[in-house]
Write a structure and sequence with these properties.
- This protein is α/β, with parallel strands linked by helices and 264 residues long.
- The protein is built from ten helices and ten strands.
- The strands form two sheets. The chain has an eight-stranded mixed β-sheet, with helices on both faces. A two-stranded antiparallel ribbon has the order 7-8.
- The longest helix is centred in the middle third of the chain and has 15 residues, at 81-95.
């Protein structure tokens, strides 16, 4: 089941029941073109891809999912690799879509290439943004973040140096201002994300664009080049950004993605 909740300035917001019974939110930017499914990283939600959707408007229909435990989507019982992949597949099945381009940043990048490896009929091409084939991160620092604050400004002050990375996830609640995710969930999610996923990265042969931020601490240059060398039909692009490539260099990122899509 799904239900429309209105038409914001750039996208229609809708919901679908996920395979575990949790509700998933997605934003459909519409348009007549082929579909690009966008999957965000930890601490984010589908709204992060609005600038890309605007850049591709008229040529591509961008559908951006709030992944389990993020944004307007429900929390889930687990944050396993299978759970995330099944969620993405459920949205595509609900919309009657196959053969789409799947773009993912960080957490979403692994979800994207695992979806391609495990359900190749659904995926025409991949855009993987600043994540490797063997992630090894630690998000336990967010365990001590405040749950609520009396104002948005107070919450951002308490978050300190982390505030710029999560400001898009700040929400007003009945009992104050907080974040649109639970720190315990993203910690568990990162722990399940860590590991050797080379078999999944090499498990599909569709065209792929691998984008790396040159100042990223998540995907090193060596691993990015090894990923491009070992898998056929991969284009590696490195941009002068940090880990959040699409946010810190939106115009260059959009040009790189647009050029890749045009080549399909």
């Amino acid at each position: 089941m799904s239900r429309r909740t209105g038409l914001p300035a750039t996208a229609a917001v809708a919901y679908v029941d996920g395979p575990g019974g949790h509700r998933l939110c997605y934003r459909d930017h519409g348009g007549p073109g082929p579909v690009l499914l966008a999957l965000h990283g930890h601490f984010s939600d589908g709204r992060t891809f609005a600038p890309l959707a605007r850049a591709l408007a008229g040529r591509w229909r961008v559908i951006a999912l709030d992944q389990r435990g993020h944004g307007r989507s429900d929390r889930a019982d687990d944050y396993s690799r299978r759970g995330y992949v099944d969620d993405a597949a459920a949205v595509l099945r609900h919309l009657g879509l196959t053969d789409v381009v799947v773009l993912g940043h960080s957490l979403g990048g692994v979800n994207a290439y695992q979806l391609a490896a495990r359900q190749p009929r659904l995926v025409r091409a991949l855009v993987v943004v600043d994540i490797g084939a063997a992630p090894d991160g630690d998000l336990s620092f967010c365990r001590d973040w405040p749950r609520r604050a009396p104002t948005r400004a107070a919450l951002l002050r308490e978050l300190g140096a982390s505030a710029p990375y999560v400001s898009g996830a700040v929400r007003a609640y009945a009992d104050g201002w907080g974040l649109a995710f639970h720190p315990a969930d993203v910690i568990a999610s990162q722990q399940a994300l860590n590991g050797d996923h080379w078999a999944d990265w090499l498990g599909s042969d569709c065209p792929a664009l691998l984008v790396r931020g040159r100042r990223s601490r998540v995907l090193g240059a060596g691993q990015a080049r090894e990923m491009a060398r070992r898998r056929a039909r991969v284009r590696l692009v490195e941009l002068d950004t940090g880990h959040t490539v699409h946010e810190t260099g939106p115009e260059a990122f959009a040009r790189a993605v647009d050029a890749f899509l045009a080549g399909l």
